[in-house]
Amino acid sequence: MASDLNKDVELENSTVAETEAEAAEISQEVENEAGEATEAAEVEEIDYKADFKAKIIVVTSGKGGVGKTTSSASISSGLALLGKKTAVIDFDVGLRNLDLVMGCERRVVYDLVNVIKREATLRQALIKDKNCPNLYILPASQTRDKDALSKEGVHRILRELDDMGFEYIICDSPAGIETGALMALYFADIAIVTTNPEVSSVRDSDRIIGILDSKSRRAEYGLEPIKPYLLLTRYDPNRVDGGHMLSMDEVIELLSIELIGVIPESKSVLEASNLGKPTVYIKGSDAGMAYMDTVKRILGQHVDFRFTQKVGIFKRLLGKK
């Protein structure tokens, strides 16, 4: 009889345990569904048409190796040096380079993807620039998949930077039209199309201009289009005269967009990269001065173009940077 009673108690306990487990499972399912519903509601509530107070600039190109990250570093640094609170974001997930050019690679703890996935706050991930207190860097992830980037996550970061009082947000785009590049340009107000004076580079840049016209937030919602500008890099008037490079006028004619800057071929660009400093900090550098001229034009100032004429023999002999 005692044995039967024990069996009844065990059976009852087992039934209670199963019931509790089922209840816990149902409760978890309800919580998950509620969380998903909340996330869906948050996504639905995002107003992508709403503009930002900050000016968002994407630095983009159709191919790699044209000086895009170098340009992002110098343009963002130049804006900060002229008193503008600036953030620069590296969108090249998996091939992080901006932090190296800015000389802050050892300070990276959290990155863009960590913030998008809510594994860290934006304030935890932002790195204050060593050279200018007005500049902050948000590095890319070295290990994550590019598909980790999401429109909602990027919008949240840009909105938070806007709320923090940043006046300019520079988006350093990967080359081409992969996910990182599309996310970098989607919210842009201005595009700096970085191009070498070579046929292949110009052709790829023409393709990027088409993407800007069709894949951006402004294109999707019928807003005023992104304003594209041409930044001509590694320009050498002597090679142009020798027929080895397209002229400035030829590139402008092929792309039909306004010229914002001409950066001369200069050994100071490599010197700056090796030092972990943007080119604008290299004293006496033609390229550094050209980048500062570009920044002033972005701010609406009239600045004459220089370094576009053939260099004389005496300057070549002096080895001007």
Which helices and strands occur, and which strands form pairs?
Elements: H1 2-45, E1 55-60, H2 68-81, E2 86-90, H3 98-101, H4 112-116, H5 122-125, E3 127-128, E4 135-138, H6 151-163, E5 168-172, H7 179-186, E6 190-195, H8 199-215, H9 217-220, E7 227-235, H10 237-241, H11 248-255, E8 258-264, H12 267-275, H13 286-298, H14 313-318
Parallel strand pairs: 1-5, 1-6, 2-4, 2-5, 6-7, 7-8
Antiparallel strand pairs: 3-4
CATH topology of the largest domain: Rossmann fold
Give the total of domains.
2
Cα separation of the termini: 101 Å
What oligomeric state do the depicted chains represent?
single chain
Question: What does this protein look like?
Answer:
- The chain has 321 residues and is an alpha/beta fold.
- It has two domains: 1-45; 55-318, 3-Layer(aba) Sandwich (Rossmann fold).
- The protein is 48% helix and 14% strand.
- It has 14 helices and eight strands.
- It has helices at 2-45, 68-81, 98-101, 112-116, 122-125, 151-163, 179-186, 199-215, 217-220, 237-241, 248-255, 267-275, 286-298, 313-318; strands spanning 55-60, 86-90, 127-128, 135-138, 168-172, 190-195, 227-235, 258-264.
- It has an eight-stranded mixed beta sheet with strand order 3-4-2-5-1-6-7-8, with helices on both faces.
- α2 (68-81) crosses α13 (286-298).
- The radius of gyration is 26 Å and the shape is globular.
- Mean pLDDT is 86; it is low at 33-43 and 312-318.
Can you tag this structure with a few keywords?
ATP hydrolysis activity, 48% helix, alpha/beta, single chain, ParA/MinD_ATPase, ATP binding, MinD_FleN, 8-stranded mixed beta sheet, 321 residues, Rossmann fold
